[in-house]
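Sequence in, structure out. Go.
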Amino acid sequence: MQITVLVEPLNGNGYRASSNTPVGLIAEGSTREQALDSLRELIKQRLANGAELTQVEVGPPPEPAWKKFQSDLGMDDPLFKDWQAAVEEYRRQRDVEDGIP
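Output:
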């Protein structure tokens, strides 16, 4: 699992690593790596105490961008469906000829 972390220098005196919500933690260290390790440890502690990171889908997934152009592309045209069927049949025939199951 990966989360986005902001790492920033502290006026020449170490580094700060912070994560935004839902984790919302901040850790500091004398090096970039130490700040990140400290933040990792804080997250591990939260998870060990029963916290959980998960993803939740809300509502239907958004339509692909090309969907709004479907009519412009001719995909609603009955000839398009006939053409698609012909392509699929040709593929099946070629697979048979080439011995592909």
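Check: The chain has a mean pLDDT of 81. The longest strand covers residues 5-9.
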